[in-house]
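Annotated sample (chain length 349).
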Amino acid sequence: MDIPVSRVHSSRLEQVDFKNLPFGKICSDHMFVMEYRDGSWGQGEIKPLTSFQTHPANLALHYGQSIFEGMKAFKQPDGTPVLFRVETHAIRMNRSAERMCMPTIPVDIFIEAIRALVDVDRDWIPPQTGSALYIRPFMYATEEFIGVRPSNQYRFVIFTCPVGPYYSRPVSLRAEDTYVRATPGGVGEAKTAGNYAASLYPAKIAQQKGYDQVMWMDPFEFKYIHEVGTMNIFFVIDNKIFTPELDGCILNGITRDSVITLLKEEGVSVVEAPLSIKKVYKAYKKGKLQEAFGTGTAAVISPVDRIGWGNKEILLNPENFSWAKSLKARINGIRSGELKDKYGWITRL
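Output written by the structure step:
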C-alpha cells in the first residue's frame, strides 16, 4: 500500500518534556485517516493531526458504533523503532468490528498504516525505560442519519502519544458487587467504546472508597473474578498461576496471551478457569496467595497490593513478587531486543 504523506510545517516535538510524560495527554504530529464509503475502503493518508468536523446526526454519537485498539512502539538500543504483536492487534480489532457490525480492515493495510505513521513520527518515541509511543487505532461511524441501524460510512484513524508508565506504583482494586461490565452474549470481548463508558461510574465509586480500579465480577452471583477495569488479572496461589478463562465476557488481552505463552515456554501451567474471590481470599488467609498482578498493553505488568471485597481486605507486598517482576522483564527484554524473539512478536521498522 502506497500511503501519501503530508508533513507538518513545524513540529511540536521541541515543546515536549520526555522526562515528564503524562499518559495520553500529548499527541504526536501526524495521524493516519482512511474513509469507508460505498462498501469499500478508500485511499488512506498520513497528514498533520487535526480535529474532525462532526455532524449532529453522526450515528456513532447516538448508537455507539466505535471501536479501538491500543499498542506501543519502542526503540531498541540501536535506535530502531519496533512494534509488538501488531498483527495480533489487527486481528483483534477486526473481531471487534464484526461484533459491532462494522467493516473489517485488511490486516496488511492496518499493519502498513501503523508502520508508516510510526516511521514518520519516530522521533516522538521516548528514549526512557518504561516509556513508549502509544498507538491508538480506532474506527467510528460517520453517516449522518437518525435511526437504529449500522452506518454505511466509517472513518478509520490512527494517532500516537508519547507516554510514560500507565501505573507508576502498585495498584489497589475493589471487587465490584453491584455493577457488571459484561454478560454472556454481550460485547465484553470487543474493544468498543461503550464498554469503557459503562465502567466509569463503578470505577469512580471504587476511587471514592480509596481504590485505584474496579475488579469486575461475574454478572450473576458476583462470585467469580473477570478482569480489572484496565487489565486482565493473574493470581499466584501455592506456586500455581491462575487467570479467569476467556468466556466472552472479558477482553482477550494480547499481553495476557504473551504472559501465558512465556509461562508455558518455561513449563509452567496456567490454570484458565472460573476463579472465585472466595478462593483467592481463603488462599490469602492461609498464607498461600503469593502474588496478584494485572496485564495490559498500557500497564504491561502491574502488581496489585490491595484488594477490597465487601468488608474484607487482601494486602500483599509486591516487593516479594517474583513472577510479576520476571515476566515484565522478559516482555520488556523482547521489546528492547535484549532477549531473543522466539515467536515473531517484534516488527522492526
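Annotation: The mean pLDDT is 95.
Annotation: The chain has seven helices and 18 strands.
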